[in-house]
UniProtKB/TrEMBL annotation:
Residues 6-326 form the FAD-binding domain. Gene3D superfamilies: FAD/NAD(P)-binding domain, Farnesyl Diphosphate Synthase. Its EC number is 1.-.-.-. InterPro entries: FAD-bd (IPR002938), FAD/NAD-bd_sf (IPR036188), Geranylgeranyl_Rdtase_fam (IPR011777), Geranylgeranyl_reductase (IPR050407), Isoprenoid_synthase_dom_sf (IPR008949), Polyprenyl_synt (IPR000092). SUPFAM superfamilies: FAD/NAD(P)-binding domain, Terpenoid synthases. It comes from Arthrobacter ulcerisalmonis. NCBIfam families: GG-red-SF (TIGR02032). GO terms for biological process: isoprenoid biosynthetic process. Keywords: Oxidoreductase. This is Oxidoreductase/MT0587. One of its GO terms (molecular function) is FAD binding.
Length: 668
């Protein structure tokens, strides 16, 4: 800190964003003063829900033990109005519901404990500037006294209507604004340990569906935070009376849950704006840094703003600390870091909001359909961010084979490309792709292509051809699996499959289009092979429907064998292999598809029942015979080893009943 300045940083506002920023800066050894206009504890209109993302940030601030005193929230119930359907999504890392009067006080106390000076009843009235026009401090009113504090940076954590953002020229006028109201209710028994989210929300005055939802977030002693929130997406939304919407929502809750007839409102109905028009180019300038609601970081779909407030505070503190340490006058990387962290999430949320009728139609049509694709759709409504990979038990044999052949890294690169492509293209695709994937089979197919293409590190040719074709192969496989989820008839209690089938077909068609697009960039011949494979899988599906079974070998050969033959054909074409080589390797690919189908591992879900022992016997013998036809050279030995590793993994990973059945069958 320069000797002529009072502190390094002034933080305006002691809400979650401001206190998180102050705590991190103080912990890094910088002098910080927080100016908060209110006297804590004070009430704040909010849903009070702390998501797992919020809990991670609080843990980094050292508040995990404090948060443990509040009851955990272990899941989200998505309740679909008009269908009676409820979709439950468990939360792996529990959240919490903490009233903002308590939460904000705890955060500000933590910042103070780490060394920040927190002043309450301190209303900031303006900015001061140096001779160059850069912000050099703030003026504020404390009781009857007017005071000035000088600093290197001013952090605007003064909320959705940030006066600092306006004064510094960083504010923007936009129509991407939401509004919410909530009340605390007593005598709400049975809310349990779940967030309850109700869609769609309707305007009682017009009957129109609103871009928003209602919520019931449980608190201790049969109390709950109950509220409604909407986005203004149409001009007429400005006339919506949220108090009327709230009253109608509460009436619908009582009708749905008779045990809540005795619920009583505690305190006033309070509301708050939800600024959802984040712009990474307008978050810092001239010594001013915006965080939280002042940076317009409320999620447009969920209305969640605490996690973004906490994380933006941490990011701002890091950027400011670096600037202070090196004597910089600004934080040029802060906006880019916010864009990297939140940009895709905000765009995805707006896409879902703008297509909400379709999204809710899919969720409604499939409320009782227990298949992975539609479970993913329902989960993605409030979990549409790019997901992290869940922990998994590796397919030991195949993983060892990949490591031994130097292919673990390129196979992982294909998986990452699928995730990134899905998240960048359509908000619901990450969840859908994750639901459709069979990662063990995916790795084997990628290994088949790379092996046949001669793409091991010692022989890999320059360029992205092998990688593109591997990604294209998996996109095609996912597309064909998505098409399998087209519903022949409405689910129980539903009049239509229109939205659900539009989604399944659209996902499949989109993935297939991207597959063909990537293949065409490498060469037209690869598109021809993709097209033939697609036709064969469709033929197998139709044959299975006609027969009423998917267990017949000729059906499995077309539906599943083709998916494992395709990477062999593509890889052989890339490397210019001989016809005899291609035929022998393709036979192994088809047989690998048969053992996959016989082990019940092509798809996950109740519609897929492991096949009878006789199917495994035939598939196992087919793989043994195909492996015997491979050449007795390095390639043949490698492919046989891959086939044996995968077959062993299927035996190890099958469920108990399937494992017993498989173990009793002939070995290779």
């Amino acid at each position: 800190m320069r000797r002529d300045l009072d502190v390094d940083v002034v933080v305006v506002g002691a809400g979650p964003a401001g206190s998180a920023t102050a705590a991190a800066l103080a912990a890094a050894g910088h002098s910080v003063r927080v100016l908060e206009r209110s006297v804590f504890p004070r009430d704040k209109a909010c849903g009070d829900g702390l998501t797992p993302a919020s809990m991670r940030e609080l843990t980094s601030l050292g508040l995990a033990p404090t948060m443990a005193a509040y009851a955990p929230v272990r899941g989200t119930n998505l309740i679909l109005d008009g269908t009676g359907g409820t979709h439950h999504a468990p939360i792996i890392d529990p959240g919490r519901v903490v009233p903002r009067a308590e939460f904000d006080l705890l955060l500000s106390q933590r910042a103070a404990a780490l060394g920040a000076v927190v002043q309450h009843d301190a209303k900031v009235t303006g900015l001061t500037r140096d001779a160059d026009g850069r912000v050099s401090g703030v003026t504020y009113q404390c009781g009857a006294a007017s005071r000035t504090v000088t600093c290197r940076f001013v952090v605007a954590a003064d909320g959705a209507t940030s006066a600092i953002a306006r004064t510094s020229g960083l504010s923007r006028r936009g129509d991407r604004m939401g509004f919410a109201v909530r009340a605390y209710m007593d005598h709400v028994p049975g809310a349990g340990d779940n967030f309850h989210v109700f869609i769609p929300l309707r305007d009682p005055a017009t009957g129109c569906t609103l871009a928003g939802y209602g919520w019931v977030f449980p608190e201790a002693n049969d109390a709950a935070n109950i509220g409604v929130g909407i986005l203004r997406t149409r001009p007429e939304d400005k006339d919506v009376n949220l108090r009327t919407v709230f009253n109608q929502f509460c009436a619908s809750l009582v009708a749905r849950q008779p045990q809540w007839r005795g619920m009583v409102q505690r305190g006033p109905l309070s509301g708050a704006p939800l600024p959802c028009d984040f712009d990474a180019d307008r978050v810092a300038a001239g010594g001013v840094v915006l965080v939280g609601d002042a940076a317009r970081l409320v999620d447009p779909l969920s209305g969640e703003g605490i996690d973004t407030a906490l994380e933006s505070g941490a990011l701002a503190a890091h950027a400011i600390s670096e600037a202070l340490n090196c004597g910089a006058e600004d934080v040029p990387g802060y906006g880019a870091e916010l864009e990297r962290r939140f940009g895709q999430r905000m765009r995805a949320a707006w896409s879902l909001v703008n297509n909400r009728e379709f999204v809710w139609g899919v969720a409604s049509d499939t409320a009782t359909v227990d298949r992975p694709l539609y479970q993913a759709v329902r989960s993605s409504i409030f979990s549409y961010q790019r997901p992290s990979r869940p922990p998994e038990v590796p397919a030991t044999g195949v993983d060892q084979w990949l490591a031994g052949h130097g292919l673990r890294e390129p196979v992982a690169a294909v998986e990452q490309a699928l995730e990134s492509m899905a998240a960048d293209e359509l908000p619901m695709l990450p969840a859908a792709v994750g639901a459709l994937e069979n990662r063990a089979a995916q790795r084997v197919r990628t290994a088949l292509f790379l092996l046949c293409a001669g793409a091991a590190p010692s022989t890999r040719e320059a360029g992205d051809g092998p990688h593109q074709l591997s990604v294209a192969t998996e996109l095609a496989c996912l597309a064909l699996v998505a098409h399998e989820d087209v519903l022949d008839s409405p689910a129980d209690g539903h009049a239509s499959t229109r939205s659900a089938n539009r989604f399944a077909v659209s996902v499949g068609d989109f993935l297939l289009f991207r597959s063909f697009e990537l293949s065409a960039q490498v060469g037209a011949g690869y598109v021809e092979l993709m097209s033939r494979a697609s036709a064969d899988v469709c033929a197998g599906t139709l044959l299975g429907l006609h027969r009423g079974t998917n267990e017949a070998d000729d059906v499995a050969l077309l539906r599943t064998g083709t998916l494992f033959e395709l990477p062999v054909l593509l890889g052989a074409r890339w490397a210019g292999r001989t016809d005899s080589f291609t035929a022998a390797a393709a036979a192994v690919g088809r047989a690998l598809g048969l053992v996959t189908a016989a082990a019940g591992s092509w798809r996950c879900g109740p519609a897929d029942v492991p096949a009878a022992p006789s199917s495994w016997d035939r598939a196992n013998h087919a793989l043994t015979d195909a492996s015997a036809g491979l050449p007795q050279d390095t390639f043949g030995r490698s492919l046989r080893a891959l086939a044996d590793a995968y077959r062993g993994d299927l035996l190890m990973s099958s469920e108990d009943s399937a494992a017993a059945m498989l173990t009793a069958s002939p070995s290779s």
